[in-house]
Design goal:
Number of domains: 2
CATH class of the largest domain: Alpha Beta
Strand order of the largest sheet: 3-2-1-4-5-6-7
Structural class: alpha/beta
Number of helices: 16
Length: 400
């Protein structure tokens, strides 16, 4: 089957990284896979994986031109199925490939919520069991596709070399964060909270905080780090910027802090994890807390803020034994549930099912009409400046 995989972008991020890794993985099951995506940092990963990339031109909103361009690619390249990731490519694929070319489409939403304006006739994959159950009440075809991790690329290999790369002094306790420095999902706010706590802990602990990532909050994070380092007259916080391969950031850690795919990758390196969420949520991954994260996603909402973060960090920093135990537990959890090989096999089966159960144009028309109306209504609401709705939809990856 010739499959066109459509990430929403190729900047660094969990959804697009998963899209590229899955595209490479499903080739092992006989599929011919092409990637249709704009330019971005991850274009090199596409090339390294030996995948052909067709350059897409994508703006901040879905347009008739974008729909037509996708339809043309489907026709010219003889595409049998389009697999679109996140809302804009999903809408373009439903109207371009599905409606114009009558080509099967699979949507994937790796965010925490599914935009309600997406067409309900189109099969979809979501990233958590809770979201799959919720979407199953609205749609006929819902599949669970959890964030995949390449277990060979993401594993601890040489901790000493990793720490040496960042100039970590023997005896220092390393806290690693790999995150976009953006206000979406309060990622930046969380990073700034960790910097503030590292400043406090540095009075009594030999902590070294490594932060890998870029975004609109980069300069603010860097200024905060410089103040902390000046105050302590040593390097407490290092802002590393974007890392094409953050493996040595994870591997250097005694403790990893993160959410979503970053959290899972930290676990793959055998590191104890503190899960970051919104509204003051921080929680250590333990055997008792794991069930909730597996079910609902590697995120949380609501907590005591800095107090919970401090309690979680001290719990791990004060006990090498606990760090080893929880790190081993996390690695086994990722191996059992999130391995890329299993995800590729699962996705290949989903492709076959979607192709076999393709909906005709006439059957799809009511769903597409509803989708178009709902998207226009949503744009109107967002332009009105409803802050609560903007925050809610940012969790679904919607930026309008």
């Amino acid at each position: 089957m010739r499959v066109l995989v459509c990430p929403h972008q190729l900047g660094m991020g969990g959804s697009q990284l998963s899209a590229v890794e899955l595209a490479a993985a499903v080739r092992r099951y006989g599929h011919d896979v092409l990637v249709y995506a704009p330019d971005g940092i991850l274009a090199q990963l596409v090339e390294d994986a030996g995948l052909e990339r067709i350059r897409a031109v994508r703006s901040d909103r879905v347009s008739s031109d974008a729909v037509a361009r996708l339809a043309d690619v489907v026709k010219q390249r003889g595409i049998d199925l389009v697999h679109a990731f996140e809302w804009a490519p999903c809408v373009e694929a439903a109207f371009g490939a599905g409606l114009r070319r009558n080509t099967p489409v699979l949507m994937s939403v790796m965010s925490m919520e599914v935009p309600q304006f997406l067409p309900t006739h189109t099969p979809i994959t979501v990233g958590t069991p809770a979201l799959a159950a919720e979407e199953g009440r609205r749609r006929h075809s819902v599949h669970l596709l959890e964030p995949p991790v390449d277990m060979e690329r993401n594993r601890s290999s040489d901790v000493v070399a990793a720490r040496a790369r960042w100039g970590v002094i023997p005896g220092e306790l390393v806290i690693s964060v790999v995150s976009m420095l953006t206000t979406e999902l309060e990622k930046l706010q969380g990073v700034l909270a960790v910097i503030a706590l590292a400043d406090q802990l540095a009075e009594h602990y030999p902590v070294r905080l490594l932060i890998a990532g870029d975004g609109e909050g980069y300069r603010q994070a860097r200024l905060r780090a410089e103040r902390v380092n000046t105050h302590h007259q040593r390097t407490v916080v290092q802002i590393l910027g974007y890392q094409e391969d953050p493996a040595q950031v994870y591997d250097a850690a005694h403790v990893v802090i993160g959410m979503g795919g970053s959290a899972i990758r930290g676990m793959a390196f055998g590191k104890p994890l503190i899960v970051q969420g919104a509204a003051g949520f921080w929680q250590v991954l333990t055997p008792s807390s794991a069930r909730g994260f597996v079910q609902d996603g590697w995120f949380g909402d609501g907590g005591r803020g800095a107090r919970d973060l401090k309690d979680a960090l001290l719990l791990l920093l004060d006990s090498p034994t606990r760090r080893r135990q929880l790190g081993s537990f996390g690695r086994m959890l990722v191996e059992d549930r999130y391995g890329l090989d299993d995800a590729g096999r699962n996705l290949s089966s989903i492709y076959e099912e979607v192709a076999d159960r393709h909906v005709t144009r006439s059957a799809a028309l009511p769903s597409l009409t509803r989708s178009a109306v709902e998207m226009m209504r949503f744009r109107h609401v967002m332009r009105a400046g409803n802050v609560v709705r903007r925050e809610r939809w940012s969790r679904a990856g919607v930026q309008l």
